[in-house]
Structures are given as structure tokens and as C-alpha cells.
Amino acid sequence: MGRRAPARLSPLQEGRLPVAISTSTPPDGAPGIGAERQRRRTLLHRLDVRGAPYAFVAPFFIVFAAFSFYPLIYTSWISLHRVELSTLNLMEWVGFDNYTALWDDDRFWNALLNTFTIGVLSTVPQLLMALGLAHLLNYQLRGSTFFRVAALTPYATSVGAAALVFTMLFERDFGMINWMLSLVGVDNLDWENNKWAAQTAISSIVIWRWTGYNALLYLAAMQAIPRDRYEAAAIDGASRWQQFLKITVPGIRSTIVFTIVLSTIGATQLFGEPLIFGQGPNGITGGADNQYQTLGLLLYEEGWKNYQMGRAATVAWAMFLLLIVMFVVQRIVKRVLARKA
Predict the structure, then answer these.
(1) Which of 91, 160, 226, 309 matches a 20 to 30 Å C-alpha distance to 335?
(2) Which of 92, 98, 60, 57 shows the shortest CA–CA distance to 79?
(3) What is the C-alpha end-to-end distance of the chain, expressed in Å?
(4) Res. 268: pLDDT tops 70
(5) Whole-number pLDDT of residue 31
(6) Do residues 221 and 249 lie in contact, with contact meaning Cβ atoms separated by under 8 Å?
(7) Is residue 303 a contact partner of residue 309, using CB atoms and an 8 Å limit?
(8) Where are the alpha helices (DSSP H) in 81-143?
(9) Residues contacting 127, CB < 8 A, separation 6+
């Protein structure tokens, strides 16, 4: 039998103490420098994780504060003064006199009513046409890309060019619209001086420019609806119209609400179309009898025709408050509909 090798003892059994190895010990042996570096690394890591998102979004808020928030506050300050366009540095404190004068001004209520009627005349047909156009584009069509680009072309057209062309079309004596109406026995219409004719003509410009844009928004939402829902409905015998009402419209409800909000804001700020439609001084006043003067035109008239920047700022704040009220009403209606659903 061979001799067994002696068992190997651990360092502790041999009476030697274990030596702890510290990773924070600097190479130069200076105590505390490694801990300081570790603390800095930890701090930079926290700034990277928590501070980087704020740094990325900061440019937007800086630009928003400079070009949106500051003008909003400055406009509210001007609205409390009597200020003329030629002497903006000379302000006379009048408190809420501009607001009370605007409340008692018949032009303000006329402009508000015109803004509402033109908004309804342009928004309702526009969104309905956009919904139908998107439904058609949602089918498998040859050259679908061409039709989608063509639908977006009016949106890319400048408001000045569009309004100028439509003004020529709605011209009383030599316009194409009156010529087409004469073919079916309708006498020439004075599109500019008749209130409802003028508002209809202005609404047609808005409809032409924004229908394609809203249609593409609806189309994007429609393509997100799963196809198996349509296949199941078709197997159950649902027609195309029933599929549209029961599947498509509920599936894009949030997009419809979004377009309604966008169209409402656009209608409240309507300015370029009626200004160019008037073709001259009547454009600023919204016609000889203010028959199509909107809030945007009233703001321009007060500030850049009557040179009263305080009143113009008051109109601007009235438009802003009107949008807030409409937003609150929209939220209330949305909650009520959600509860009923």
C-alpha cells in the first residue's frame, strides 16, 4: 500500500488571516480617491437616466415659452391698456374697460355669429366628405398611392392661391359658378354681398383645402382596425354600409373627435379666406355690412386699421377663452357619450 498524501489545510486552519481585496483602492494607493470617482460615476449615471429626458424636451418648451407663452401673457397685459399701434411703448391703464366695450360692441357679436355659422358650414360637410373619401380609399384600388397624394394636394396649396382662385370662380358677372347655375335656369348670385352666399363661398374654400387632410387621418385610423372584424361581419351577412356604421365608425371614434377639435380651432381662427375673398378694403371688414367678418378679421381691423392694439388684444383673448369653453364642452360631451356607451 502506498502512503496517502497529507490533507491540504485552509489558510484559516494554518493560522493565516484572509486578505480582503478592495476594488475601490486606487492604483496609486491614495485612500478616498476611488470612492470619490465612484460617487461621481453614480451621480452622472443618475443625471443620465433622470435628466436626459428633460434635456431632450427642453428645446420645445424653450421655444414654446418664447413664441407662445410670452406673447400670450404680453397680450393679456396689453388688453388692460389703451395702446396705439404707432406708440406701443406708451400705455394707459384702463383695467377691464376694453372687455366691457367689446361685450357691448355689436360688431363682436356679429363676428362671433359669423365665425360660428361659417365654422358649421365648413366643418360638418368637410368631415362627412373626408369620412366617405377615406372609406373609399380604404378599399383595394389600383393606383391607391396616386389618389392618396392627390387628396393631400389641396392642403399643400397656399391659402392665398386657393382663395384667389375661388374668388374668381364665385365672381358675380363672369364667374364659372354662376355660369353653371345659369345652365339650369338659376339667375346670377351676388356671392359677395349676399350674407349666406358669401359664407357658403368662403366655406367651400375651407372644405376644399382640408377635406383631403382629414381623409388621410381617417384612412390611417381605418387601416389600424383588424381585418378579421370585417371578415366575421361579412360571414354574418352584414352589408358594406352596416360594416361602416358598426365597425369603422366606432373604431376611429377617437380620430373623429381629434379632427373635430382641429376643425373647431381652425374655424375660430379663420382669417385668410374671408380676407382675400373680399378683394380689398371690404375684406378687412368682412364685406360692406360685415356679413362675413370673423373674429380674426375683427382683430385685424381693430389693430391694423383702427390702430387700437389694446382692443385687438382683447379680441385675441376672447378667441382664446372661446376655445377653452369649447374644449370644456367637448370633454363633457365625450364623457357623457362614454358613459352611455
Answers:
(1) 226
(2) 98
(3) 93
(4) yes
(5) 56
(6) no
(7) yes
(8) 97-103, 106-137
(9) 214, 256, 259, 260, 263
Three-class SS of residue 164?
helix
Nearest by Cα to 192 from 133, 275, 270: 275
Mean pLDDT for all residues in the chain: 85
Three cell numbers written together for 254: 377617437
* Count of other CB atoms within 10 angstroms of residue 227: 8
Please tell me whether the overall predicted TM-score, pTM, comes out greater than 0.90 for this model.
no
Better pLDDT: 2 or 235 = 235
Beta strands in the chain, from DSSP E residues, in sequence order: 81-84, 87-93
For 208-250, give the DSSP string. HHHHHHHHHHHHHHHTTS-HHHHHHHHHTT--HHHHIIIIIHH
Query: Residues 236-262: pLDDT tens digits?
Result: 888 888 888 899 998 998 899 889 888
Copy the grid coordinates of residue 200.
Answer: 357658403
Quick check: 338 and 250 in contact, CB under 8 A? no
CA dihedral 217, 222, 223, 227 (to 10 degrees): 180
CA atoms of 168 and 177, how far apart (whole Å): 9
Residue 23 has a pLDDT of: 47
3-state secondary structure of 92: strand
pLDDT value at 160 more than 90: no
Helix 309-340 / helix 295-304 crossing angle, nearest 10 deg: 160
Give, in degrees to the nearest 5, the angle at Cα 152 between 146 and 153: 85
Question: Quick check: 26 pLDDT over 80?
Answer: no
pLDDT at 12: 46
Which segments of 256-310 are extended strands (E)?
none
